[in-house]
Amino acid sequence: MPISAHRLDQYRLQSDPIADTTVKALHDQLDSKAIWKWYQQFISELETPDYQTLPQPLAAFFEHNQQLPAWLDQEQVRQAEQLFLDIGPLYAVCLLLRSLPIGYSSLKVVKVLTSTGYLSRDVKQGTAKRILETTQFVLNVMRKDTFTPNSSGIKHTLKVRFLHAMIRYHLLKHDWDTTSYGIPINQEDMAETILTFSVGSIKGLDRLNAGLSMADKDALVHYWAIIGVLIGVEEALLPRDFKTGEQVYEQILDRQSAPSEDGQLLTRALCNFGRGFLPVKHMPMLPEYLITYLIDNPKYSDAIGIHGPRSAKDKLLFASMMRSVRLLNSHKQNKLIAGVTRRMNNVFANNLKLYFDTEFDLKLIIPKEIKAAWKLKY
Q: pTM value?
């Protein structure tokens, strides 16, 4: 690695044959109304499915695609699980305010999102629900013992894999431009998404001076590579250490990044969502400033139409805020400061959870060990 541009172009024309075959089998056996019912149920319910109650092709899909890769390292898995318990709220900040918006600079990925008519709706009906589902996915796959048969994490991952295949099936039936955009939710796009959850978030954590060791970074990339296998990504596109993962992540981002109205629309919706739970009273543009700061590359922030502070007041306030966060994170070995940083992380996690619960009536299902580790009130 890196992977040749020619090979990545080929990956844009490859999907997920196993999931696609399942969707075709469903359409062969059931009428469209019944299939739509299952699709809507999977989208609307955050609980992981009991696959034994599903139609036979779908039940078989859940039952027979739980194989874990031979290279899975249990020690790295445990390290990633503990890391998430320790810094999960800070990881969530970087996922929401770096990983997701930098992905909106990938024009061809964004085309799939907006073609579904999902993320482009208003905050309550589109953005919030999408962020809730993404957050629930992360909570389910990062919980302890995910990589055991029939775990919530595995079933949730397979559920997402099936939904990807359903979206792909319907977009291809409705004049999707494969020449311009490749197969919807193709191998390259799926690999970029997996690396977004690992490398993309790690790079944000580095900007906040979170103090991850290289072993921590390798463990997180390794963990998400296992999720990538379960979600249908070819192993050749799944780096298992941070250095290699960063190379592939940056390579794909660089070749796919381009300004687009869709990407900027999605970024504005995300920023509007962020204004609901971030402390924006004295700095209304705080979401835009945080995203720009965490991305730390004008090529991508310009592509999604945002910028850092420009007024003297905002520059001063924001610089002071970032210095304080970085300074606190750099002294976490001090018990007093560690307590302060934990409190900050808990406040963020509680605010986000409360925002979902009260503003949108959307309920996150938080595993007990994560709720306890983060000291969530709600």
A: 0.95
